[in-house]
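RECORD TYPE: inverse folding
INPUT: structure tokens
STRUCTURE:
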């Protein structure tokens, strides 16, 4: 754990913000010797990066076989419907034990029974609001008792745009940020330490096309999905710096228009620029996400044509 810069700031962030502002003293200019060392470090970096580029090209020319996830325990938040249900069903095909955390108990239990009959796996449903930290901690204890440690964490639970008339009321804005953003913090805080201990794990974060480029008409949703994108980028770097690269893996997912809730997607398709877009089924989206997990892909765009378009125009 990285220590706080101020040992007295470990309590309430609000209380810390009320403290008198303590400005950073001026930083003295760098010496010529320091500038020279920076050049040396840069040259050293270029040489040290050669093996990395060789590995990138070798993986491209000789792709690694997919990892085996049979008997792994996978937790999918929001797994009772939409993209989450597609991911759950696809994971079960590869022998993964699946755990659904959702508010929809009817669909969640139905999928669990369906998968138990169809596949030789363990499956379970937990009714939980993943936007609440204490509820996620309790969920972690229950899963550990019933299934064992979580190997794959799919942070899929989310609130969609155009779901209610007054989307921008303070309560609805807070709810969207709590579910779409803070739930990622709570689940990772709960399950990542165990992945470190076992030196095995995979964290998947569902962002959106709206988390890659501005799309218009949904600044609430886009803001939350940009946050998920940043969260996953930082998490990937933290795992690398902690020394678990290749053992604990991250995948960021950027779906475009997926056939999920009628209220949201139906409205979306009436907006300029969206009516001609391809609608991907939840089954196909789930298939691509699990394929990305098995191949340790860092980023996944659904559909692939979206990736080509985004990279061509914005990167």
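DESIGNED SEQUENCE:
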């Amino acid at each position: 754990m990285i220590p706080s810069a101020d040992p007295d700031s470990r309590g309430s962030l609000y209380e810390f913000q009320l403290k008198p502002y303590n400005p950073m003293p001026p930083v003295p200019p760098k010496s010529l010797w320091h500038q020279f060392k920076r050049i040396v470090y840069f040259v050293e970096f270029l040489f040290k990066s050669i093996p990395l580029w060789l590995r990138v090209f070798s993986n491209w020319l000789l792709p690694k076989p997919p990892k085996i996830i049979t008997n792994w325990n996978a937790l999918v938040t929001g797994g009772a419907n939409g993209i989450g249900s597609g991911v759950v069903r696809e994971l079960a095909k590869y022998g993964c034990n699946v755990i659904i955390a959702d508010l929809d108990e009817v669909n969640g239990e139905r999928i669990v029974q369906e998968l138990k009959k169809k596949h030789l796996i363990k499956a379970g449903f937990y009714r939980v609001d993943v936007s609440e930290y204490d509820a996620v901690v309790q969920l972690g204890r229950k899963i550990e008792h019933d299934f064992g440690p979580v190997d794959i964490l799919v942070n899929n639970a989310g609130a969609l745009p155009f779901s209610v008339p007054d989307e921008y009321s303070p309560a609805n804005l807070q709810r969207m940020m709590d579910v779409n953003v803070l739930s990622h913090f709570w689940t990772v805080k709960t399950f990542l330490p165990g992945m470190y201990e076992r030196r095995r794990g995979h964290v998947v974060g569902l962002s959106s096309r709206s988390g890659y480029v501005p799309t218009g008409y949904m600044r609430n949703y886009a803001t939350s999905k940009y946050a998920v994108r940043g969260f996953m980028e930082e998490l990937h770097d933290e795992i690398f710096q902690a020394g678990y690269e290749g053992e604990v893996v991250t995948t960021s997912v950027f779906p475009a228009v997926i056939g999920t809730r009628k209220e949201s997607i139906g409205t979306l398709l009436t907006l300029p620029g969206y009516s001609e877009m391809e609608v991907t089924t939840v089954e196909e989206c789930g298939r691509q996400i699990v394929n990305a997990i098995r191949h340790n892909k860092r980023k996944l765009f659904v559909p692939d044509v979206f990736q080509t378009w985004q990279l061509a125009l914005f990167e």
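NOTES: Residues 93 and 119 are 7 Å apart (CA to CA).
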